[in-house]
Write a structure and sequence with these properties.
195 residues, NADH Oxidase
């Protein structure tokens, strides 16, 4: 987004569900890219990106990503230059959680500062699993499904992305001011590819 100052709520345009490359072509062309252009992403691309990551795709409230027992325990945050936002699938909007740029805390690589947006996948472990092993398993799987959807969307839209697990999660969770039941799983910077 090209915002002058952090907006408290960003109402996203409806996702474009009709465009894009064929799925098999996206599967063939999917790749990790680490060279980004810092140019902001327009609202329509941000809308489509977040829809791919965690959007509601059916009238009964089910999402573009599967979750164990449909518990929908995952949250997707968007770290941008002006602030940290939480995506709300039901309203297809972003709410400002914290003003200021935390992208440098989203990973140990410099690419996080270059990308105009870094998606942060957070699992609410209070909603899933009966024991610690199940909680970790389900939260990690949910993040994996979402990040793969984003990879395929980025391939279709001509964007660059890479999933990053090399993250100081306690530091990022502190910067995000997350409660103890919410855990960062992965980060995923998204940008236009560098020319």
């Amino acid at each position: 987004m090209n915002l002058c100052a952090a907006e408290k709520t960003i109402k996203l345009p409806p996702p474009d569900k009709a465009g894009g490359k064929p799925l098999m072509q996206c599967l063939t062309e999917r790749k990790s890219e680490r060279k980004f252009d810092s140019k902001p992403l327009p609202p329509q691309i941000l809308s489509d990106l977040l829809y791919a990551a965690d959007g509601i795709s059916r009238p009964d409230g089910r999402k573009t990503v599967p979750t164990a027992r449909n518990l929908q325990s995952q949250e997707v945050y968007a770290a941008m230059a002006d602030g940290l936002y939480l995506y709300h699938p039901k309203t297809h909007s972003l709410d400002l959680v914290k003003a200021g740029d935390i992208r440098e805390k989203c990973g140990m690589q410099a690419i996080h500062k270059t990308a105009p947006i870094v998606l942060i996948y957070v699992g609410d472990v209070s909603k899933i699993g009966k024991n610690a092993a199940e909680k970790v398993f389900y939260a990690a799987n949910h993040a994996g499904y979402a990040s793969q959807n984003v990879y395929l969307y980025c391939t279709s839209a001509g964007l660059a992305t890479v999933v990053c697990g090399l993250v100081n999660k306690p530091e990022l969770e502190k910067a995000m001011e997350l409660p103890g039941t919410k855990r960062v799983q992965l980060t995923q910077p998204v940008a236009y590819p560098a020319k």
